[in-house]
Amino acid sequence: MNFSRKNRERLKLNTSFNSAKFSFISCLIMLILISSCTNDEMPQEERQQPQTGQQKALSPEDINAQIDASIEKTGSFDWKDASDHLLWSAAVHGGDILTIGYGDNSFNETKTSALTTIKNEILATISSKEQQKNGEETLIYADDILNFIDVKVSSLEVVVELRKNENIRYIEPEGYSYVNIETKSSSGCNQSGENISSSDFGTLPSGAKIPWNFYDHKINQAWAYSKGRGIGVGVIDTGVSSNQPYLGYKFDDFYSGRYIRKYGTYVDSVWPWSRRTDGPNDKCGHGTSASATVGAPNNSGGQFVGVAYESNIISYRGTSDVVLNGYHERRGVANALKALGNRSDVKIISMSIGYPWGIGRIEDAIKYAYARGKMIFAAGGTSTNFTNWYGVIFPATMNETIAVTGIEEQTGYDECDACHKGSKIDFTVTMERGNNNHQPVLGFNNGQSQYFGGSSVATAATAGMAALVWAKYPSWTRAQVLQRLKESADFYPNKNGSYGYGNIDALRAVRGY
């Protein structure tokens, strides 16, 4: 659905905050080009559940109403602030799954005896009050590095008891999905090729195409100094298409030695006990576009290049689409973060995915990767035209991430028609023209191109610019690279309340003047 800016503003005035529920549901409909396109979510059917003190679980509609009320009042939501009854009710409608973060820290590579004792005490509390049926076990999953466990809990009494435990950092109903209750919508997935306007690209001597917005950021001029050679960029998204040779066997045609690696951590199953991933190949299209934005190669086939077209790409299919609203999506992303955190050839991580509020296991995983020196870029959020009032989404809200959003091509700053903005934003990328055309990128299938927009393309493009800088100064630390990006942006040394440091001048970033 597309509107002119004039009509969009009229819609904002007419509909703004008429109903917190309507607004927030709408935001979720297209958040980062939202929703779920697979069947990995936990079933939401009504069923008889254990009761404590004659209390019944709230309906999904009532749960959502309380979430909406928190959003309307405070601008955010956190399960830590939810009542015992609300938390338990959400677990009831999410397969009885709770994720419990324990101990003082997000991670320990070797579990101490103290941590083991805490975990066993939690399990003992659950087992003493739960009667699991049909041979089900209490413990679903215990992470080997991050300090959390996934458990089955059906009793409100157990939730009340667990929340008294001072050794527990968070308890979240991991199987509960707000999105699936009242919305069935687009997911940000697109495998179709598009005709790209001749005014939306330039051409390299090789015949490869340069997206129009690269000129706005002087990326084409920065290539005289750096092309990202030797820098590994991890992309956590929906994977990479097996049908796109320029992100496959043609990846290093022009520059022998660069590589793309593809992995999968996402499990496409309704069962939380399932462990078999469905591989590294993109079945959505979003991940292919994100990886292409970062580092699609120079080529003689007339295809679009990426920002850092000599960098290495390490792709992880951690999710089925861009909204982290399923148990296996959240687990897949956390596992991808751990894996990338442990790779010495990866310096940068790009995440054009997210959720309206925090997810404990992913927070833990981001802190793990950050502690290993990774520079992590995250999308500020993309939604429908009349709900981009909603603030920056998770994980771009974290201090360990660098938040990016998209803006329109014009003299002043104005967010793209569907982009979020706010005080958490660090950088922007010009990615939307007056005719609503976005950045063109390499397509899902061989010979295809398509437009890629929102904070998704902005995030991947900024990750690519960071790779250009780091390749030019390979001995620099993450802090030094980030500082150079800031110094090269429009608003430095100040930070704008909605757009951070603004657009990066890539030429200035690699040259330093």
Entry summary:
With 513 residues, the chain is of the alpha/beta class.
What does this structure look like?
There is one protein chain. This protein has 15 helices and 15 strands. The protein has 513 residues and is of the alpha/beta class. The strands form four sheets. Strands 8-9-7-10-11-12-13 form a seven-stranded parallel beta sheet, with helices on both faces. Strands 2-3-1-4 form a four-stranded antiparallel beta sheet. It has a two-stranded antiparallel ribbon with strand order 5-6.
Topology overview:
Blueprint: H1 5-15, H2 20-30, H3 60-74, H4 84-92, E1 97-102, H5 113-129, E2 139-142, E3 148-152, H6 156-162, E4 168-172, H7 179-182, E5 201-203, E6 209-211, H8 212-216, H9 219-222, E7 232-237, E8 260-264, H10 286-295, E9 312-317, H11 327-341, E10 348-351, H12 360-371, E11 375-379, E12 401-408, E13 427-432, E14 439-442, E15 449-452, H13 454-472, H14 478-487, H15 506-511
Parallel strand pairs: 7-9, 7-10, 8-9, 10-11, 11-12, 12-13
Antiparallel strand pairs: 1-3, 1-4, 2-3, 5-6, 14-15
Distance between the termini: 42 Å
Main structural class: alpha/beta
Number of strand elements: 15
Low-confidence stretches: 1-54, 180-186
Q: What level of helicity do the residues show? A: 25-40%
Mean pLDDT: 88
Our Rg estimate from Cα atoms comes to 23 Å
Strand line-up in the sheet with most strands: 8-9-7-10-11-12-13
